[in-house]
Amino acid sequence: MAEFDRFSVEGGARLTGRVRVSGSKNAALPILAATLMTDEPCVVEGVPDLHDVRTMVETLRSLGVEVEHTGTTVRTRVVNEDLCTAHYDLVSRMRAGFCVLGPLIAKRGRGKVSLPGGCKIGARPVELHRKGLVALGAEVPVRHGYVEGEADRLHGAEIFLGGAFGSSVLGTANVLTAATLADGVTVIEGAALEPEIEDLARFLVCMGARIQGIGTHRLEIHGVERLDGTTYRIIPDRIEAGTLMAAAAITRGDVELENICLDHLVAVVDYLRALGVSVEKTESGLGCRVTAPERLGPCDLNTHPYPGIPTDMQAQLMAVLCTVDGTSAVNEKVFPDRFIHVGEFNRMGARISKEGAVAIVDGGHRLSGAPVEAPDLRAAAALVLAGLVAEGVTEVSRIDHLDRGYAKFEEKLGALGARIQRVGA
Length: 425
Ligand code: UD1
Hints:
Layout: E1 6-10, E2 16-20, H1 25-34, E3 42-45, H2 51-62, E4 65-70, E5 73-78, E6 85-86, H3 88-91, H4 101-108, E7 110-114, H5 127-135, E8 142-143, E9 146-150, E10 158-160, E11 162-163, E12 166-167, H6 169-179, E13 185-189, H7 195-206, E14 210-212, E15 218-222, E16 231-233, H8 238-250, E17 254-258, H9 266-275, E18 278-281, E19 287-291, E20 301-302, H10 314-321, E21 326-331, H11 341-347, E22 352-355, E23 358-363, E24 371-373, H12 377-389, E25 393-397, H13 400-405, H14 409-415, E26 419-423
Parallel strand pairs: 2-17, 3-16, 6-7, 10-13, 20-21, 24-25
Antiparallel strand pairs: 1-25, 1-26, 3-5, 4-5, 7-9, 8-9, 11-12, 13-15, 14-15, 17-19, 18-19, 21-23, 22-23
């Protein structure tokens, strides 16, 4: 018997209606980690109800934090600073667990954190995190699969965080958060520009941190003695929004999205428009309407760090390309090995060939429902999207990957008319 839930998706339904996007997973996780930086209570609102958040809540509890998690609100209060180890069984479940390292070293002077896990989308090194923390004066040796961070007191430094594939998002989160309590001024050059980092910086400012250059590649942090508790609402999830846009596009549907920030989706919207999809702001300005004509045209897809098309949208947009007449190249610039889903799409009758970090999609051939296995979080969503337009039934197994990062995914698609059912293990 299968160990994990699967989805049974019957193709052919055109999605129509209105759907509300949840708060951002990738903003919530480092922000929750940053609540370790204060002795006072924090309230984080708009937190999506999904597995990765529950894993972060468990991680915080294991580090001596009292956490009340109800619906989309998480309340935290540190009660025991002696617990400084984030164990393998938690951090190996998701990479964002590693974000507790910076806060532990900065606030408690020490932190032992397992090397991270997360999606199997290629190499996931942490040397940029360690480089930044070392520059701030910490020692961060790796022993027996754990990073053992230690510092009497962090001090400001000039740090370049660019890497071979751009900046590290979570590396920036770790170093930025730690630097808020360092002595003196820290300058992070080559900081990640992702909106989730901007949101983290705004959260830290609400706690009393002094940060200049928010939203730019150069963050200047003036260390403060202590941070206060705060109440904060996180941004909407741009990847969930993009995924729902892709769902509307692939089914040639007509869907209105609520609770989105279109400014965070400029490249995705631009790309969808290039395919022939219409994306228009709704009158309130807080939503958008996505409508797709029957015929879309091909267009090459390149993923990049923000503000480019996110690597976390690559698989979902590749699903759309399978339904577009003509050939499109997909060039993955952030995680060059992130193509495990290609084989699964091909099981459904897609014609995709892979050459290095480029996949060539020969689109427009009717997909047929098949048993497929989700290799990672975003690819899981992409396979569901493919199932929405495949002839017959697609069984997507390993839905535990999807549950890590999407809140109520099947309910949301179902409300738009998708025929999708969860089948228990
Ligand atoms: C975050 C996101 C993830 C997204 C990724 C890229 C969260 C919880 N996860 O992951 O969904 O796919 O950004 O937008 O926010 N790298 C190094 N050295 C390092 C760290 C990273 O070379 O020390 C490389 C990686 O191998 C990759 C690139 O840099 O090629 C980007 O990775 P990074 O930004 O660190 O991804 P995450 O922050 O882990």
